[in-house]
Amino acid sequence: MRKTGSPCSGQSGLPNPAFGHEKPHGKPLWLLAELTYKCPLQCPYCSNPLDFAGAGAELTTQQWLDVFAQGREMGAVQLGFSGGEPLVRQDLADLIAGAHELGYYTNLITSGVGLNAAKMAAFKQAGLDHIQISFQASDADVNNMLAGSKKAFEQKLAMAREVKAQGYPMVLNFVTHRHNIDQIDRIIELCVALEADYVELATCQYYGWAYENTEQLLPTQAQLAHAEAVTNDYRERLAAAGNPIKLIFVTPDYYEERPKGCMNGWGQVFLTVTPDGTALPCHSARMLPLEFPNVADSTLKEIWDANPSFNYFRGDDWMQEPCRSCDEKDKDFGGCHCQAYMLTGDMHNADPVCSKSAHHHKIVTARERAETVTNAPDQFVYRNERNSRVFAKG
Amino acid sequence: MSNSIALHTVPKLNRLFRFQWEQAQEAYVLLYPEGMIQLNGPAGEILALVDGERDVQQIIAQLQQKFADAGDISQDIVEFLGEAHAQNWITL
């Protein structure tokens, strides 16, 4: 799900995919607008590309509104405003209003830093449907350490209360990892106290900055089992008490034996547009050795229906063994191509999370390392401009 | 249980959900944070009448009139409303 990596590094000689004809695909129901890479926080598991500092100019207000209109025409119904920190965009209220008018369900995915009651009311007026606030931990010290900011936690608490006070549905998102997953009971208690409607307890996915920090992030199997047990226990108790809060627990695929059906299939449901207008079938895909189109050069319909990169992993023509003859290939579509590329060097390989993959030992090795690593937050590579420029230069 | 919904109950859409017609899918849908439920024909027709003002009896009467050839559909409607309540889509 998460985004990462350096763009196409000039690899060539790839098989030329079918060009200009349509392969079976659904509608882009989910449009994710990554409005900007600017962000006041520095989370070491950010899904933005490592080299975001080298990205091109941001799309204008009019360009975004045009993308939203085209997406809606094609059946898109969920629109996520993301980033970076989308609040950095001064035209956010105009973008919300435009999207709302088109009939989208609009989601603001924010750190809460830079938000205040007046902005929230203006967004509501513009038609914003929902606000998701991400937290780094359940207490100020760990939260602020991970966010790379001294005041972030208090601000997040205040904004979460304001979201509820203004009558928005609220999703709280906690990215969990070895530094905070043992506090999952306190995380859940905090969410209950803040009256969250949905809570995403999402273990890190190891792409982008998180991949750079895998060793300091990946929890042990025991930590994960404990967290899941605690979550299940809370689910039962909260349901019995009539609390409608929904706890969504996302396990890291590093502890699975079969890969996730990534994005419900490549180019099937999900369309991301990055700050500079690059269209992607998932947030991470930019790291792959494929050329991705820009919304400034093609219509969204041309891109979705016929762009070679959007067609590339549709169907199963691209598959090699063990995927090709696998009876589960229609369920997981071979898993995540970015993970295959990062861990095996070939995006056509099965996702190494799969125990049938010849590269599965790499996942097993990462799990074993998690058992012996000492927590050392000073070893985090933080997501900031300075570190990104190093990656942008390559 | 679904059968226990009284006919004078006034169902209301849970504020977490937005209900709308989606032309691209030719279906009514329920939208919620980052998600969507595509409703089948009957479910959509019923929820389209859930407005926080009509009671169950009025909803039944209106649908019975609209689908006069369908026979007695009151039990189906009550059962669906019970299911919708269990799913937290509506409050009663």
UniProtKB/TrEMBL annotation, chain A:
<keyword id="KW-0004">4Fe-4S</keyword>
<dbReference type="InterPro" id="IPR058240">
    <property type="entry name" value="rSAM_sf"/>
</dbReference>
<feature type="domain" description="Radical SAM core">
    <location>
        <begin position="25"/>
        <end position="237"/>
    </location>
</feature>
<protein>
    <recommendedName>
        <fullName>PqqA peptide cyclase</fullName>
        <ecNumber>1.21.98.4</ecNumber>
    </recommendedName>
</protein>
<keyword id="KW-0411">Iron-sulfur</keyword>
<dbReference type="GO" id="GO:0051539">
    <property type="term" value="F:4 iron, 4 sulfur cluster binding"/>
</dbReference>
<dbReference type="GO" id="GO:0016491">
    <property type="term" value="F:oxidoreductase activity"/>
</dbReference>
<feature type="binding site">
    <location>
        <position position="46"/>
    </location>
    <ligand>
        <name>[4Fe-4S] cluster</name>
    </ligand>
</feature>
<dbReference type="GO" id="GO:0018189">
    <property type="term" value="P:pyrroloquinoline quinone biosynthetic process"/>
</dbReference>
<dbReference type="Pfam" id="PF04055">
    <property type="entry name" value="Radical_SAM"/>
</dbReference>
<dbReference type="InterPro" id="IPR007197">
    <property type="entry name" value="rSAM"/>
</dbReference>
<keyword id="KW-0408">Iron</keyword>
<dbReference type="Pfam" id="PF13186">
    <property type="entry name" value="SPASM"/>
</dbReference>
<feature type="binding site">
    <location>
        <position position="39"/>
    </location>
    <ligand>
        <name>[4Fe-4S] cluster</name>
    </ligand>
</feature>
<keyword id="KW-0560">Oxidoreductase</keyword>
<dbReference type="InterPro" id="IPR000385">
    <property type="entry name" value="MoaA_NifB_PqqE_Fe-S-bd_CS"/>
</dbReference>
<comment type="pathway">
    <text>Cofactor biosynthesis; pyrroloquinoline quinone biosynthesis.</text>
</comment>
<dbReference type="GO" id="GO:0032324">
    <property type="term" value="P:molybdopterin cofactor biosynthetic process"/>
</dbReference>
<keyword id="KW-0949">S-adenosyl-L-methionine</keyword>
<dbReference type="InterPro" id="IPR017200">
    <property type="entry name" value="PqqE-like"/>
</dbReference>
<dbReference type="GO" id="GO:0009975">
    <property type="term" value="F:cyclase activity"/>
</dbReference>
<dbReference type="InterPro" id="IPR013785">
    <property type="entry name" value="Aldolase_TIM"/>
</dbReference>
From TrEMBL, chain B:
<comment type="similarity">
    <text>Belongs to the PqqD family.</text>
</comment>
<comment type="subunit">
    <text>Monomer. Interacts with PqqE.</text>
</comment>
<dbReference type="InterPro" id="IPR022479">
    <property type="entry name" value="PqqD_bac"/>
</dbReference>
<protein>
    <recommendedName>
        <fullName>PqqA binding protein</fullName>
    </recommendedName>
</protein>
<dbReference type="InterPro" id="IPR041881">
    <property type="entry name" value="PqqD_sf"/>
</dbReference>
<dbReference type="GO" id="GO:0048038">
    <property type="term" value="F:quinone binding"/>
</dbReference>
<comment type="pathway">
    <text>Cofactor biosynthesis; pyrroloquinoline quinone biosynthesis.</text>
</comment>
<dbReference type="GO" id="GO:0018189">
    <property type="term" value="P:pyrroloquinoline quinone biosynthetic process"/>
</dbReference>
<keyword id="KW-0884">PQQ biosynthesis</keyword>
<dbReference type="Pfam" id="PF05402">
    <property type="entry name" value="PqqD"/>
</dbReference>
<comment type="function">
    <text>Functions as a PqqA binding protein and presents PqqA to PqqE, in the pyrroloquinoline quinone (PQQ) biosynthetic pathway.</text>
</comment>
<dbReference type="InterPro" id="IPR008792">
    <property type="entry name" value="PQQD"/>
</dbReference>
